[in-house]
Each structure stands twice: as C-alpha cells, then as structure tokens.
# Entry
Amino acid sequence: MAGAVVLLRGINVGGRNLIRMPELQSAFRDAGYADVRTYIQSGNVLFTTDAVAGPALEADVERVLEERFGTAIMTVVRSRDDLAAVIDAAPPGHGDPDLRSDVLFLKEPAATPDLLAALPELDPDVDRVASGPGVLYFSRVAARAGSSRLTRIIGMPIYKRLTIRNWNTTTRLLALLDGD
# Structure
C-alpha cells in the first residue's frame, strides 16, 4: 500500500463547509482507506491505499465526502512520490524567509500552461510564479505581500480547479508521509 495525501478545497474556511477532523478521518476509514490521519484544519488527509493516485481516486474520495457530509468538495490527490516531485521541482528560493510561498495544486485535467495563461498581470517586484508537475509555485515578497496580485485569481474560473497550500504545509505533508 502506498501513501497519499488528499487536499480538500474550501473546508473550514470562513465558517463554510465545517468538518471536524475526527469525522473526516472516520469517513476515510469507513471507505476502506488505511493509516488515516489529518494535518491542520484546512483539509489535508494522509492515508495509504492500493489505488493509484489520480482522477479515479479523486472521484472516489469526492463521492465518499459528498455521501458523508452532504456537500460536494473538490479534492486533489497526490501520491507520496508525486508530492516529493513537487517539492524537488520547486524553483530556487521558493520558501525563503523573505517570501510568502505557496503551491497551487491543480486538479486534473487542468494544466499549468492554462493557469499560467489565465493569470492576471503580475507585479515583477512582488510576485514570482513558476510551473511544476501539476502545480504552480507562487511567491510574493513578504514585506509587500499586500501588493500581490495572487488574490485576483480567486475570481477566475480556473480557481475552482485548484487548491492552495503554503510551502511549510506542503513540505510538512511530505515529512508526515515519510513517517516524521
């Protein structure tokens, strides 16, 4: 059985889609997933499975969540190796202390070139963006984060096909999958 992480989009944010982590863990266990645990309240579920990470596993997880919680929740699933590849492919400096660095995980079949093309014009003195394996790396200068144009992506149609994790959460999820 291989380790994987499910990144849920839009739970426990702004008082919407409130799901307690023990209930979320129970939903995964009841669906037959093993070694289930969560990390922070924003919807990160680590587990092991015989299923291959990808659209079929995402569809199964989304079905389980909708049946259990009565609402459609978009998910992105990455295997342990997929997540390691995302971290390894990060551009130099991503995650530096003077930056606020995020990873925008795209749900298949969304493609990073489509997202890059759809982004609003960025401020080169504040924002940095690079593509990776099924992700975009987005950093902004911490001292000028209020001037970042990242928030403009929220109103774009492709926003519904992605979920965002900060760099610290992303790297911590891999450490947890590796047993730390």
Summary: The beta strands are 2-8, 34-39, 44-49, 75-79, 99-106, 127-132, 135-141, 162-166. Residues 31 and 60 are 9 Å apart (CA to CA). The chain has five helices and eight strands.
